[in-house]
Amino acid sequence: MVTSPSDRKSLAVMAFVFSLVIFGTLAVSYLARGYQISFRQGPTLTSTGLLSVTSKPKSASVYINDRLTTATDDTLNLPPGDYHIKITKDGYLPWDKDIQIKKEVVFQTDAQLFRSAPDLKPITYAGAINPTISNDGSKVIFAVASASATQDNGLYLVEITDNPLLINKNIPRQISPNYPGTDWSQASFEFSPNSRQFIATFPGDIYLLSLDTPITSKSLLDITPQLASIKQDWQTQTDQIIKAKIDKLPASIQALVSTASANDISFSTSEDKILYLAIKDANLPQNIITPPPAQSTQQQHRDIKSQNYYVYDLKDDTNFLIGPSLDIHQPQWLPGSTNIIYNQSDKIKVVEYDSTNLKTVFAGKFDQNAIYVSADGNKIITLTSAYHSAPENLYAITIR
């Protein structure tokens, strides 16, 4: 078949465009995998790794091997090797980590920066007695007994949710006044597993109360004869919650995890990391799952010791030691992050899941049994006093 010059020209253009598309696709693929073109000794393709430096908040300075290199957020090509990364920002505690860059693999910092001078603001002003947080972490109930107006004494609730539609969040509201013979400051409180009911235990009476309906004097019915049955039902619900968590874990991890309390096992917000209390010594086998190329290179602890807290990464197959339960109290995930917060020796500390970047975010006198984290993870709520001999109140401490 004889083709005309115009047909040959069209075929040539199509071949050129096709070749350009193929070349462009390959170039983008290689660049995305960290390859760079070097012209030092003629054009050569060099394999590198990618460092994605991200932080909250952004616009933080990034030092690589003590040299100011860029600012967050940014992505850099680096030759494979070991690096010391430091991220700093005025008004925040520094973040640093020793990392290993691998060829064709992306390392992401995901640095959470915490304030160097936390902001402390009162939530209550007339005291807070026996504060108790709900199991879902969304609300705290407490009693007031020293209000200047007698009618203001009673039982209060404060919502610590991040729901933008809730205009009264972090503002205490009275849910019941004191009644004749009922002084709420004399009671201790325990929430139901679904956080919709609570038991108020007085020296002589025990009440089961709902937060879904107003609490009146008619609500105060002694349930002492039914208490054992109610507690058994709550324990059954708690066991179901724990089982649902345990079932998500590999079999070799399940055997190590404490099931004494739902608080002994908790998932990160992304549900790919689990904080757990070990109940026995064991050796965690390698390659429970096939680890990804970007598996963390931080030091692991797979030699498990009883009564230590660990974090197991379900995607990475890595296991990190957080610390012994004798030293670490009330460990819990900081929402929206890979950090764990706990109290230790009159200090509130945060640490990354891989046991790096241990920081003290608050130090001073506070009730070590009353440390609550707001749902957005930006604030800690605790019971403390502004100065010596002042009454204890609930304070919100902004840490990030």
What's the mean pLDDT score? 88
Q: Given the C-alpha coordinates, what overall shape results?
A: elongated
| CATH first level of one domain | Mainly Beta
Biggest sheet, strands in spatial order?
6-5-8-9
CATH topology of one domain: Immunoglobulin-like
Using only CA atoms, what is the Rg? 28 Å
Q: Low-confidence stretches at least 5 residues in length (pLDDT < 50)? A: none
Helix content: 10-25%
**Could you give the distance between the termini?**
74 Å
Structural class: mainly beta
**How is the biggest beta sheet arranged?**
4 strands, antiparallel
Q: What's the total count of β strands? A: 32
Pfam families: PEGA (PF08308)
Keywords: Membrane, Transmembrane, Transmembrane helix
InterPro entries: PEGA
Protein name: PEGA domain-containing protein
The gist of it:
This protein has three helices and 32 strands.
Account of the 3D structure:
The model has no long low-confidence stretch (mean pLDDT 88). The strands form ten sheets. The protein has a four-stranded antiparallel beta sheet with strand order 6-5-8-9, with no helix packed on it. It has a four-stranded antiparallel beta sheet with strand order 12-32-31-30, with no helix packed on it. The protein has 400 residues and is mainly beta. It has a domain at 35-112: Immunoglobulin-like (Sandwich), CATH 2.60.40. A hairpin with a 5-residue loop joins β26 (329-333) and β27. The chain has helices spanning 5-32, 227-246, 251-254, and strands spanning 35-38, 44-47, 49-53, 55-56, 61-64, 67-71, 74-78, 81-88, 95-101, 106-108, 111-112, 119-122, 129-133, 139-144, 154-159, 173-177, 188-191, 197-201, 206-210, 265-267, 273-277, 282-283, 303-304, 308-313, 318-324, 329-333, 339-344, 347-352, 359-363, 371-373, 379-384, 393-398. Keywords: Membrane, Transmembrane, Transmembrane helix. It comes from Candidatus Shapirobacteria bacterium RIFOXYB1_FULL_38_38. The chain crosses the membrane at residues 12-32. This is PEGA domain-containing protein.
